Description:
Strand content: 15-25%
CATH class of the largest domain: Alpha Beta
Strand order of the largest sheet: 1-3-2-5-4
CATH architecture of the largest domain: 2-Layer Sandwich
Number of domains: 2
Structural class: alpha+beta
Helix content: 25-40%
Order of helices and strands: HEEEHHHEEEEE
Largest sheet: 5 strands, mixed
Bound molecules: zinc ion
CATH superfamily of the largest domain: Metalloproteases ("zincins"), catalytic domain
Distance between the termini: 32 Å
Shape: elongated
Amino acid sequence: MKQTDILILAKKIAEQYGYTLPKITFNKRLKFTTGKCYKFLNWIELNLDFCLNNNEEIISGLIKHELAHMKYFDHGDQWKKEVIRMDTIPLFCTAKMNRMINDGVWTCDINYPYQYVCPNGHISRKKMPIKEKSSCGSCSKYYDEKYLLKLI
Ligand SMILES: [Zn+2]
Ligand SMILES: [Zn+2]
């Protein structure tokens, strides 16, 4: 979908489901996420490549997904209910993970759904789940159980 069409679609969706339309921008540097919601800035950022390569149905799911984060930060039950109220399925949230970067910012990951954190807060993203116990590569070059990665 073209960016101009997406903005029109977003406006329509916001009106239909009772949202104030946030600022919407397109980011071609997003690699790991389809969209980001900056709740406190009233701003949604969409992955440009993803937008250009997907149809209206998918993009409208993405917009609803991010709009619902304006109300609920996580992918919990309230968020899911809100997405369902908007007549779509809670897409990108079962196999796909999201994480909080800082207050009010969520990013919904499509390619690296498994995210791990070490005791020192380093985040690693994986395409596949880690089978064995793994420790953080930033904290130690070798396996060290002090720095075990935990799925988040
Ligand atoms: Zn999300
Ligand atoms: Zn670490």
